[in-house]
Amino acid sequence: MRRICAVFAALALTGCSAGTSTAPQSREVTLVTHDSFAVKQEVLDEFQKSSGITVKQLASGDAGELTNKLVLTKANPIGDVAFGVDSTFASRALSEGVFAEYASPEASKGAQRYQADDSNRLQAVDVGDVCLNIDPAKLTAGEPKSYEDLVDPKFKDQLVVENPATSSPGLAFLLGTIAKFGENGWQEYWTKLKANGVKVVSGWEEAYNQEFSATKGTRPIVVSYASSPSAEGGRTKAVLDTCYRQVEYAGVLSGAKNTEDAKKVLDFLLGEKFQAQVAEQMYVYPSREGVALPESWAKDAPLPASPQSLPADEVKDNREAWVEQWRKLVQG
């Protein structure tokens, strides 16, 4: 999942620079992540000092790319623990046996509210609901409040979305429309979106940072995250009636070379000190209960009360067919 202005962690984690780790190999854990993982240096340093574990990060694209790599390398894992497989792809990772069972003692302190299943193979680290974001200053005909508003001619040629075949937020938005309009209604809805000039791009980076009018583009409606406005100083808004619940998970990889230390790193990701900096560093909501959020989030980035969602099994059974139907409908 891509964040706005996230502090890229490659420079903060051992193994992502030209330097060579001096820590014993037996105490090194490779943490495979999506590209937008970030952690405060002092938080990481404290964990490494107290545990004796050197954390080596391996950034592996967005959530979809990350999941694909983990599946393709499951017989010879590229790391010990992974973070960033989200709820749109979790069912695939679980069905492919990518993750090992581990019931972290930290998981009962909030993460259990968002569990993917009851197997203890994935633990929720953060929540980042996907929603429409708008640039009110550029919307001359009013603001959309719902999915239905997007097909109104007054919003023609104003929406940019990500391709669900290549983008995690794009897939989440598609799933949101399926949850909203049902198996018999979502295709008609997308037909209307296409007729109303929706623009499809490959991923979040292009949609938000190149096409969205609040940055460099011309389109004042974009698929992003409920928390995105927190980075824009009140210039943008999330349309909370268009949100789809997205959770990011972490888990110990099956066949990991350093399983015991990988478990400690997972505990760290769910622990209070890491969770306390999640909002500031990655612009998402921590999964742990009782963690304070930045004061501005109450106004600029409230967590949606009733986001759309679909059962994990339904997504697993239909995801590929839905994406193929979407491709033929919108791009065919």
Descriptive report:
The structure is a single chain. The protein is an alpha/beta fold. It has two domains: 9-128 and 246-299, 3-Layer(aba) Sandwich (D-Maltodextrin-Binding Protein, domain 2), CATH 3.40.190.10; 130-245 and 304-331, Periplasmic binding protein-like II (D-Maltodextrin-Binding Protein, domain 2, 3-Layer(aba) Sandwich), CATH 3.40.190. Helices cover 32% and strands 17% of the residues. The chain has eleven helices and eleven strands. The chain has helices at residues 41-51, 63-72, 90-95, 168-181, 186-195, 204-211, 259-270, 272-276, 278-282, 297-300, 312-331; strands at residues 28-33, 54-59, 81-86, 123-127, 130-134, 159-162, 199-201, 221-225, 237-244, 247-252, 285-286. Strands 2-1-3-10-4-11 form a six-stranded mixed sheet. It is globular and about 60 Å long. The relative contact order is 0.19. Mean pLDDT is 90; it is low at 1-12 and 14-26.
Could you give the order of strands across the largest sheet?
A: 2-1-3-10-4-11
Helix content: 25-40%
CATH level-two architecture of the largest domain: 3-Layer(aba) Sandwich
CATH superfamily of the largest domain: Periplasmic binding protein-like II
Q: At the first level of CATH, what is the class of the largest domain?
A: Alpha Beta
Keywords: Signal
Signal peptide: 1-18
Protein name: Thiamine transport system substrate-binding protein
InterPro entries: ThiB-like
